[in-house]
Amino acid sequence: DGYSQLSAYERKRLKNITENAKFFAALKLHESAARLHQIATKRQSHVTKRAKPKKAEDETVRRRSMRLQRVEPSGIPMPEMPAQPGVEEYPQVPAGPLPMVPEDQMGNSKLTEDLLTTWMRISEVLLVIITNVLMMLSRYQDSLNSMVLSEDNIKKVVKYRVCSMAIHPSESIIFVAAGDKSGQIGLWNVNCKAEEGAHVFIPHNYPVSCMHFSPFNPAHLLSLSNDTLRCGDVTRAVFDEICRSEESLSSFDFLEDNASTAIVGHWDGDIAVVDRRTPGTSSELSADIGFKRTRTVHVHPVNKQYFIAAGSVDVCIYDVRYLKSNGNKPVSSLKGHTKSVASAYFSPVTGNRVVTVCADDKLRHNNNTGRWLTRFRAVWDPKQEDCFVVGSMARPRQIEVFQDTGKLLHSFYNLDFLGSVCSINVVHPSKNILVGGNSSGRLHVF
């Protein structure tokens, strides 16, 4: 009514605009954006505001960290889960959908728009399945030797310690996501040599312990923190909330190639099954698998009904089809670990091998990172069934590649540009690209 002078096309367009406006109004994104603006304003004022001097009688004894005092950590293990950070240090992120607004630029940013547009563009051409190509070992070693680190390919992407990373499967552009201990996610277009090639978002309140680009649609970046599993959808510029839990979440993996369902591990040892297609943010099933702690979960690459869970000293394989609330028995238990296990992953092509990282330092490999570094996770090279990459405590600082026999194949190092331990590493699924992340938020791309 009242628009009879418009053509049918113009009326249809007006109707679409109206419906879209109603949809986004229902999401209340403006409230989330206002909340994020408030967070940024508060964070900036917190940095510049000078605290009032305390009176001498009110002054308490200042606690200095053992690291600053150069004191060795005691034998008492630190709790794996960090305490909730203070509100002033890490402002709380609201529940529900969040707009993809960068932490450093709250207004309309051409630079941020370029970054997100790049992510969307390189995702549109990746609806084909990438085929793993296994190389002869000698040829594989030659490819490792050809990979180098340059000064342009080092960048501080997030503010704090890197806890997880994911690399986009694009073969044209190197696009990396990194999550840190405060809940920040940094997106970096490595090919963009400008200073503004990376931007930081804050979709979480706690350490981002696990991240994956969706294998079905890499325009989706799924990230997990203690209290929530989110999906960053660049086509809608929103961080959706998939699962929220009062029990602390530790890791996740996709149960299907279409990434519609996921297995989620809890720090208290339980396992949950999440279906992204169902409404709400609760899991479909919660199962006690007998673990005191579950640090990582990983789904078998071929037989996706099987997943492997790694915990305190436990590494077990379960069949998701038979999970129930209690009394779950593993299909297989991998014995031999005598200390804390940090991770366990199936090999990428057949799943016939499992690589674990344990504090018992097997392979004559020093895994004692201490409390100041993120624990090592050995990850398979997706292009090579029997070779994996892991951080190293050795000097000069390096990232090491091992064969499943225990043979050290290659050490990535650079005396000029790599001077820190890279605890978290990720390998490109089809290109000769390795990214290492350290405890100051800096990424190194070989």
TrEMBL record:
The record's listing under InterPro entries reads: WD40/YVTN_repeat-like_dom_sf, WD40_repeat_dom_sf, WD40_rpt, WD_repeat_DNA-damage-binding
Q: Does the keyword S-adenosyl-L-methionine apply?
A: no
Coiled-coil region(s) = none
What's the protein called, per UniProt? WD repeat-containing protein 76
| Molecular function, one GO term | DNA binding
**Complex formation:** Interacts with CUL4A and/or CUL4B.
Q: Please give the family membership noted in the entry.
A: Belongs to the WD repeat DDB2/WDR76 family.
Compositionally biased spans, kind Basic residues? 43-53
- Does the keyword field hold Repeat? yes
Name the gene.
Wdr76
- Record keywords: Repeat, WD repeat
